[in-house]
Amino acid sequence: MLFVEDSSEIIKVENLTKFFGDFAAVKEVSFEVERGEIFGILGPNGAGKTTLIKMLSTLLKPTSGKALVAGYDVVKEPQNVRKSIGIVFQEPTLDVELTARENLDFHGRIYGMDGKKRRERISEVLELVGLSDKADILVKKFSGGMQRRLEIARGFMHFPKVLFLDEPTLGLDVQTRRNIWEYIEKLRRDEDVTIILTTHYIEEAENLCDRVAIIDLGRIIALDTVERLREGIGKDSIEVVVENGSVFENLLKSQNLKVVKTADGLMISASDGEKLIPRLFSLAQKHRIEIHSVSLKKSSLEDVFVLLTGRKIREESAAMHPMMRIKRMRK
Ligand SMILES: Nc1ncnc2c1ncn2[C@@H]1O[C@H](COP(=O)(O)OP(=O)(O)O)[C@@H](O)[C@H]1O
Ligand SMILES: [Mg+2]
């Protein structure tokens, strides 16, 4: 053990880096996670989320840097790390030809739990994810949401200190997603576990996570509580579409406004958006710039990402994830 049992940080990451050939998928990432937190890693597809989770769970060796999970070094003490963690992968890994109980039982055996303990724990975890009455049904008869819940149950079957959830609600509908969030919250309440989850869904990070690291192109570009991340850019977000975007952008910047050019127009962050709108119009008028449209909304983590990168999280992921693409085409 490198730090004492009651230390508040259960995960410590320092300059963690992963190269695939000469491509850096994760670049000098550093952060700490407190015991009992739900910590989110939010970023578009390809940002490096899965690579990061794989390094923390010892499935991938870092190129450089250091990570301690539950007090153990992921490179020097991988066995101890593995005993301390549970993982739910992005891709489903249940045996669909077995029942829910059989899947959990198999997992318990791998972790060396004796028969009595397995039986007790299976009842407990099934209860926690609301599947008690489905224990003896074949997993292939489960809906997508039920399968996810079972995977989460399996992830914490062996009393892990840390549970990694890689895109836990990927491809699920909104209703099912909310339902899974409730179970994740319950899990945190009822079990002594720290949860690290990755997601590219803004709502998931905003609703579920205590703190969020926003990751893009392998780097953490912001990290704080959801509230502070939002407040940091101003509570309102205004999107303006104008005739001459670049000129207007420079004009706004010269007024010390937080503005960024996106694919759709200009995004401006402000603490009092309603008061800013008339100012935008008079500024545009003065410089003979035509405003096509203006919209005002409460700022979200999406806006934090847009302001930092000029891109949106969602569009990219929707464009790149095949499952999402099919859904879009069907509309
Ligand atoms: N085994 C690998 N070999 C080469 N490139 C990889 C490998 N795994 C991931 N990558 C690349 O690393 C980047 C990050 O991938 P990943 O961690 O899966 O991102 P995310 O989970 O955020 O979608 C992507 O550009 C991906 O193509
Ligand atoms: Mg991934």
Describe this structure in words.
With 331 residues, the protein is an alpha/beta fold. The chain is built from 13 helices and 14 strands. It has a 6-stranded mixed sheet, with helices on both faces. A 4-stranded antiparallel sheet has the order 2-1-4-5, with helices on one face. The structure holds adenosine-5'-diphosphate (ADP) and magnesium ion (MG). Adenosine-5'-diphosphate binds next to helix 1. Magnesium ion is lined by residues 49-50, 90, 166-167.
Number of strands: 14
- On the 0 to 100 scale, the average pLDDT is 91
- State the shape: elongated
Mind telling me the C-alpha Rg? 22 Å
- Can you tell me the residue ranges where pLDDT is under 50 for at least 5 consecutive residues? 316-331
Number of domains: 2
Distance, first to last CA? 53 Å
Order of helices and strands: EEEHEEHEHHHEHEHEEHEHEEHEHHH
User: For this structure, what is the CATH class of the largest domain?
Assistant: Alpha Beta
Sheet bearing the most strands, described?
6 strands, mixed
Q: What name does the CATH topology of the largest domain carry?
A: Rossmann fold
Query: Can you list the strand order of the major beta sheet?
Result: 6-7-8-3-9-10
Residue share in helices?
40-55%
Number of helices: 13
**Could you tell me which ligands this complex binds, including any ions or cofactors?**
adenosine-5'-diphosphate, magnesium ion
CATH superfamily of the largest domain: P-loop containing nucleotide triphosphate hydrolases
